[in-house]
Amino acid sequence: MKYKGSCHCGKVAFEVEGELDGAMACNCSICSRKGSLLWFVPREQLRVLTSEEDIGTYTFNKHVIKHRFCQTCGIHPYGEGTDPNGNRMAAINIRCLEGIDLESVPATLRRTVVVARVRGEAACVETSELYSTSNRRLPRQRSMQRRYSS
Question: Where is pLDDT greater, at 149 or 80?
Fold first, then answer.
C-alpha cells in the first residue's frame, strides 16, 4: 500500500510504500521527546518529494541516524540509517502519514535498562512491551538480554 505523508506545514512531503503492520515508540533521548511512532521500511520504499536543501538533518551520539525535519515547522517526519546488516532503512513517523487510524496500529515501546556495569561493560536488559497507540498497555510482553560495551 502507498501512503502519503508530510510535516505540519507540508513543506516536507513524501510517499512510502509497504504494509503498515506495527510501529515502535523508541525511548532514546530524542525520540522520547518527539513522541514519534516509527515504522521501519527499506530506504528505497521512501520517496521524498521535497528538495534536499529544504530538509534539515540532525544527528547525535554516534551520528549514524539522520533525523530529518522541516526547517519551517520543525516536525520530524522520518529518519534515515542502516540496520545491523548494513541495509539502508527509513524510520517513518506514522503520526505524519495521511489517513492513518493510530488506534489500529499495534506499537511496541522499547525500553533499555542498564542493570550492571562491570569493567567497562554494561549488562543491559532490553524489553519491548506491546501497547496500543492510545497508551493502553496490552498483556503480551517480550524481553531479551544483550550485552553492550561502553
Answer: 80
d(CA 137, CA 130): 7
DSSP assignment of 47-68: EE-S-GGGEEEE--TTS-SEEE
Q: Is the pLDDT of residue 31 over 60?
A: yes
CATH number at residue 31: 2.170.150.70
Long-range pairs, 65-74, Cβ under 8 A, ≥24: 65/91, 67/30, 68/12, 69/7, 69/12, 70/7, 70/8, 70/9, 70/11, 70/12, 71/11, 72/7, 72/9, 72/11, 73/7, 73/8, 73/9, 73/11, 74/7, 74/8
> Residue 149: pLDDT band by 50, 70, 90 thresholds?
very low
pTM of the full structure: 0.74
Nearest to 79 by CA among 50, 46, 118: 46
How many domains, the chain? 2
- Domain of residue 113 covers 107-149
